[in-house]
Structure formats: C-alpha cells, structure tokens
Design a protein that fits this description.
The complex is a heterodimer. By secondary structure, chain A is an alpha/beta fold. Chain A is 32% helix and 25% strand. Classes of the chains: A alpha/beta, B mainly alpha. Chain B: Keywords: Cell inner membrane, Cell membrane, Membrane, Transmembrane, Transmembrane helix, Transport.
Chain lengths: 504, 329
Amino acid sequence: MSDQQEPALRLKGIVKTFPGVRALDGVDFEVMPGEVHALLGENGAGKSTLMKVLAGMHQPDEGQIIIAGKPVRMTTPIEAKAQGVVLIHQELSLVPEMSAAENIYLGELPLKRFGRVDWTTLFERSNAILKRLNCNFRGEVTVANLSIANQQMVEIARALTVDARVVVFDEPTASLTDAEKVVLFEIINDLKARGVGIVYISHRMDEIFTLSDRITVLRDGAYRGTLTTADTDEDEVTRLMIGRSLDLSRDTAEHSLGEVVLEVRDLSCAPLFKKISFSVRAGEVVGFYGLVGAGRTEIAETLFGLRSPDSGEILVDGSPVQINAPADAIKLGISLVPENRKEQGLVLSMNCRDNMTLPQVQNLTTGPFVSSGAEIAIFDKYRDKLEIKTPSWRQTTRVLSGGNQQKIVIGKWLSMHPRVLIVDEPTRGIDVGSKSEIHMLLRALAAQGYAVIVISSEMPEVLRVSDRIVAMYSGQIMREFTAEQVTEDSLVQAISGIRTSEVA
Amino acid sequence: MSNLTDITPLRWLMRNPIWGFVLLVFIFFSLMSEHFFDYRNFQNILVQTSTIGLIALGMTLVMINGNIDLSVGATLALAAAFAVDVQSWAMFATWGNWQILPAVSLALLVGILMGAINGFIVWKTGVDAFIVTLGAMLGIRGLVFVYTGESSFYAMNFAYSDFSALSVGPFPVLALIFLACTLIVHLVLSRTVHGRNTYAVGGNREAAVNAGIRVGPHMMVNFMIIGFLAALSGVLLSTQMGAATPNLGRDYELWVITAVVLGGTKLTGGKGDIIGTLGGVLAIGILRNGMNLMQVPAFYVYVILGSILIAVLFLDKRFNRTANGGLRL
C-alpha cells in the first residue's frame, strides 16, 4: 500500500437515515488499490448499511462516493458493478434452482441475437472463473445441489466477472470450513496482488489480523477511527468497538462436579455419525469441536428427538430412555439451543415474551386462557438473569441484536428448568462484546449445576468455555481432552482426522 | 400481535388500514344513498356478511398457520345438501321439527370431517395445503353433484326456512351467530394456547417443532375448525334460501381469502388477527350492499373490489415498512 496513490474508493461523510433511525452518521472510509481494509463494528453499528450504500442498494442522504477520483452516483447493484464495486453478501443471495454459471452471471448473462442466452460463452467463462477459485464443481450444476461452502464460492465467483476495483466481503467465512478458508484467503491475496481494493467485514479477530492492512471501526453508525493493523492489537480494536476492554481470560474458578446426568453409548446414525459415546456431569461444560459437517449438530438433534438413531443408548441419570420427539426430550430435561437462532430458535414475528414462554405456554393458563401475568413474570425473571436488553416484552424479536436474540433463546430453555443444556454455535454472527457475555453466561450456568454441551467451530470459544473437549472428525469422536491437556495443535490434528499417538 | 406500547387511535388505524377504509365507505354510502343509513339495512349487511364472515374466521386461523383452504365453498355446498336432505329422510318422518337436529348435526359433522381429511393429508404427506385443498375443492364439489344428482333439494319443513327470519330483540339470529363466533374465535386466537401456537407454527415452523409443539395435529385442528365454520355457513345459507343447490358456495373461497387478506393476514403466515378479518368482511359487505342500493351493476363491484384489495395492501406496505426491509425492486 502506498500513500501517494489515489484511493480505489472513498466514502466521504455518508449519512443515511431510515424512519426513526440514523443508521449512518457522517461515515468516512477509503480503500487503496491492493489493500485489505477491514471494517469492524458490533451488530447494528452500520456496516451492512454502509455496504448497501456502496453497492447501490441504498441511496445516501448526504455525502459522496468517490471511485478512482471521480464522484459517482449509483442506483442499482448492476451500476455499482459496472463501476467496479462488487459486494459479496453475508447471506447467500443465489437462485437455488438455477445453475452455478447462471448465478455467476445473473443480471448480465452473455446474449446472442434476439436476446437469446449465449450458453457456450456463459459456461466457458464461468468454468474459467471457477477453476481460478480451485472449485471442484462446474458451472453446469444446480446451485441447490451444492454445499453451503460451494455456494459461497459461487457468490465469490460473481465478483470475478468484471475487472473489480473494490470487492467487499461481508462475513465470508461464516459458513466455511477451515480448509475452505485457506482457499478464500488465497483468493483475497491474489486479488490484492492484482491491485484490487478489498473491504473485509468480519467478527473474527484472528482473520482480521492475518488478512488486513488497516482496520476501520464503526460504532452506532458513527466513524470511530482507522488503525494500521501492524501497529495495533485486539485490545485496542475492541476498545474502539465497544468502548471498553474485554476480559478474555478463561474462568478458572473451579466448582465441584456432580453426578453424570447424560450418558451416550455407541450411538450411531448412518451416515452422519457412528459409535458415539460420551457423558456429561452436572456442573460440567463439554465442548464439541470439529469441522462443519463432522456430525456434531446431528448428535445434538438426535439427543433432542429430532432424529432417530440406528442403534445405541441414551441414558439420563443412569437409566436408558427413548427420545422420539422434542416433547420427550423436554420432559427429560434436555434442551437444545439450535444452530440458527433465526431459522430454528425464534419466531421472529412474535414478541420477546411469547418467544420465551413458547415451550411451556400450555402450563401457564388460567381457565381456557393464557395467563399474561405468569408469562410476564417468567420473562422478567430471565430478562434480569440474562441481562437481555429490550425496551419491553412487547418488542418483536426481529429487531433485537444477535446477542439479545440468542439470550432470548437461552432464556426460553432455562425457564423450562432443564438439566442438560445443549448449545449449538452459541455465538455465530454475534459481536465480540456479546460473545464474551454469552461465554461467561455458559460458565455461570454450569456453576449452577446445569450439564452444558457446547458445539462450536471456533477454537478460542471451545478452549475458553469447556471443562472437557470432544474432538470430532467425519462422524466419529477422535479424542477427548481435558481443559488441562488440550493444546491447539493436538486439537487441530484431532479434528483433521490425524490420529496421533495418545501422547498429548 | 401488538408490538408497541403506545397505541393511539391514529397509529391503530395505520396498522389496520382496513378499518379506516370501512369507515370511509360507511360515510360515503351514508351520504350517497338515502336507503343506506338505516337500521334495517345494517341488519341486512350483517346477515349478508355472515356467510362469508364465518368462513373467513376459520380462514384466518388456517392462513396464520401458513396454510390455505380452497375447499370451503365445496364443503359449504355439501353441508347444505346434507342439512336439507336429511330432514326428509323417512326415518325422521315422525320427529316433527326435531328432524332438523340430526340433519344439522350431520351437516356440521361432515364439515369437520372434510376439514380433518384436508388437515390429515397436509400433516402426513407434507404436500402444500394449496395443492391438497385444491384437490379437495374439486373432489368435494364432485361429491356434491353425485349426492344431489345435479338437482336442488328443497326444505319441506317450514320451521327450517323460517329460522333465518328470526330475531332476538332487534338482532337477526344469523347476525348474532356470526358475531358470537367472531368473539369466540377472537378469544381462541388471542388468548389461548392454541392461538399462540397458531402464530408460532405460521411464524417459524421449525422453531415451533423445536419448542415441542406437535405441528401436524395442530394444523389439523385448524382445518377442522374451518371445516366446521364452512358447514355452519352452509347450513345458515340454506335456511335463508330454503334450499340447497349443487352450485352453492362457488367462488366463496376467493371472497373469503380476499376478506382475510384485506384484514391484514399475511399469506406467508405468522401474522393477522380476527379484528382485521372482521374489518375485511365488513368492507366487502358494505361495498356490495351500498353499490347495490346505488344500483351499480354487479360487475363493477368486482372491478372496484379488486382495485381496493391491491390499494389496501399497498397502503399496508407503505405504513408498516420497517427500517431495513425497504429493499427496492
């Protein structure tokens, strides 16, 4: 990066208001050619809005967008793309029933006369792009048949159809495995080497510090400052982001462990997982770590009655049980905080109180009607206990931040007084500040005697919250570590399927 | 579901644009037609509205569930045919006016059964309710023709056809039945566990399953409720006509869906309420009645209703658009 150069993209004093919200308040931002510029901020800080302004999906109320020295006005994503600005969405915005090639060139398919699609050129070009991305599939496949990671690759391939000046990656690694991340980082470095300016949005500090040259932080829609990555550290960035330091140390306060609450023996469900055996004691946090697709979520779903196992036993308090439906699991005191809180955990159109009492509302009646007072009592209790920030129980959950949404889901299950709490990816898509709150909450819950199972793809998270760690690879348990034995190296080896000699 | 604490009348109207519209057409026809603002005409409107209104109550539940029921018109016809025909069966010949009881009971049971079949198929096969009830719509209408032999049944018992003319004080019985059902369904939807689950299942089916709600049986219950209400509507309609024709209730599913959607219920499920549906039903009732009084040809009524449907939903989108949902097309 050189200081003499003209910035590839410059945003000056961008203001964007929505009815009732000042989403962006005079934001400045610039990317040099060949620079990776990370954009950071908590959820709701305005990152996504800023990027939508940049991609022509929103019009700024004030301020200028300057591309290669010239002020521009963009009103559609296609126009933005023509200016060399490409946005790679956090949530996949692909048409699942179309081929990968059609998706890559969506909106600008190569045409022959009379508006007919030039299929030969389309497939030729898209296959060339996919090859550059080291993808092992061709443009002809239907997107619905691709894995999430490969769909992400299609999304990225879209950026390469034009000579991009600026490529914006909005949380690109959220659904990628570690191996796929490496490929993505290579692509980013390749783009960088060719003088493309990269805007990189992510919650993951480790990625930001490996990739970026500079970091810009937003808070509450306002510009907080730009740091040079080489001269800063996580603490400084976090302070800028949330206005205070974070306590990242592991909660080492030991509490006594109780009896074994849940035990699983030789549980199999082909082809997802086989011969799974483990146990969880009261007051213990067991972390399940592995790559996406290693079968962790499926085990949780089986324990919660959403899948039926082929063979094996589940024991609660030492006696074997049958779990055929979530209702059975709930009765046995097993609760699941699912992986996608928006798709599986919450009814977004319902208010906070109704979401929290959903599994037990049938027990909260007076006469034929639901007793509002009893429900509000439960909501108030867990709002205070979990420090959920919401103006009122009437607020629909859709507008809450990710951290608060997750707390509603956790509160929902705690209010059922479970004995085993399974949390699947508890902090996915949640900003740093709320993340550490959730971690402390999980530790505190264990200290109160709950048996907690944490499934996570983030190593720092697993290391931080777990008393024991179960490493999984392709449907099998590779190794079990205690918090004292575990090292990052041995953990990585275990989840990559490398069986080391049992010396840690 | 309410989601804000301060509900002023204006804000309430912005959330329920259909009631603003009801008010508007009410004032309009009161000024335009001397026959409109009259107590007996109001009775008329309520009675005319009750047929579609009863079904719309059930449709609100089914649509909040994220389903739809297209078979209601045919169910109505089948129930009406049973109600009128069974009275004249030889086995009840000596029952006097009591012969109406088994006839109406059987008709209502048939309605519940049709709903149960719809719901059961949706539950067990997972086929979209639109397709299942589209099939049921054709199939049940076929049954009606088989049963009636393509001819109309006439009620021989005059007590039956006089029923529709009864009043309790100033209120016609049919209107009272409709209003009572409205109140009951409103309470069920807004205050009971079943109502809460209705929103949850429609809002996010997966989350509802995770919360231990038995989604399949739950949806079946709502289909049975709408089947019952469609049958009740058919019985009441046949008392008004003193007869059951095989084509009774044709296109009613479309009127009902129009009323429910006008009332703010989302086709995708999870949102809607009975107050809105009542507004939608009244809007259609008042428009048809008022234009009839002004002697507007019936076909224009369709054109106007169609335009209003789109206009009201457009206003709803304008007023209730959220800060981040305003993606331009």
